[in-house]
Amino acid sequence: MTTAAELQTVLTVPARFRGPEGIANGGWIAGTVAEALHGARHDSAVEVTLHAPTPLDAELSLRHLANTATLTHDDTLLVEAITVAERFDAPAFVPFNEAARAERGFAGLIEHAFPGCFACGLREPGDGLRIFPGQVPGTDLVAAGWRVPFTVTDADGVVPDAIVWSALDCATGWAHFGPGESALLGRLTARVHRRIYPGGTYSVVARATGREGRKLFGESALYEVDGTLVATAKATWVTPA
């Protein structure tokens, strides 16, 4: 039963927004649930835990109650989002031209475990985001130059938070991955500071921050061309058993 204080909607993830084949891109679904929690407000960070892979083209239940939002499929909890007082140590700014040059070192160009991924996959321009983070020489950073396609806006011409979270997501994994390596996103905590504009150019920067057993940790940031910080995130990935 839905209480008077609870909002509930039905969500279906289109196949376009996949990560691995058959399941949603982690950043996209995390941003979607975070936006359900916060709406257009960006006054605090949101921590999103992915408890299980989110299937595509299935009817999912998205519930928002107080400071928590959840996504479920039948009786299975898939995603949970909460508001947190999180402080981020953003990776340093990399100028757009330098970030774009770093893409030549993107390990996924050699071998990509999920070539159809919405964020970092080898999709057609305008279909996926085509964010290809490669090593920045002389640093511990990976970076990519992101040209925001007009095809990712909503009906009002706004780039949704789900797209911004997608851009923040995969780079934190590629800070660890070599060719053909992969993991699944387990948690993404992010804050969007400024609006992203379609047609704009941004630097996506990330770094690895540690490893513990099967867990990989990373941080990422989006910057405008003048170095203004747009969004920040920290991620936990889980490698295959």
Q: Biggest sheet, open or closed, and with what strands and sense?
A: 11 strands, antiparallel
Determine and state the CATH class of the largest domain.
Alpha Beta
Architecture of the largest domain in CATH? Roll
| Strand proportion | 25-35%
β-strand number: 11
Helicity level: 10-25%
User: First CA to last CA: what distance?
Assistant: 37 Å
Content-based structural category = alpha+beta
Question: What count of structural domains?
Answer: 2
Low-confidence segments: none
The CATH superfamily of the largest domain is known as Hotdog Thioesterase
Strand arrangement in the largest pleated sheet: 1-3-4-5-2-8-11-10-9-7-6
Roughly how many Å is the radius of gyration?
Answer: 17 Å
Shape: globular
The CATH topology name of the largest domain reads: Thiol Ester Dehydrase, Chain A
Roughly what is the average pLDDT, rounded to an integer? 94
Quaternary organisation of the protein chains:
single chain
What can you tell me about this protein's structure?
The protein has 241 residues and is of the alpha+beta class. The chain has two domains: 78 residues, Thiol Ester Dehydrase, Chain A; 143 residues, Hotdog Thioesterase (Thiol Ester Dehydrase, Chain A). 14% of the residues lie in helices and 34% in strands. The protein contains three helices and eleven strands; from the N terminus they run βαββββαββαββββ. The protein has an eleven-stranded antiparallel beta sheet. Helix 1 crosses helix 3.
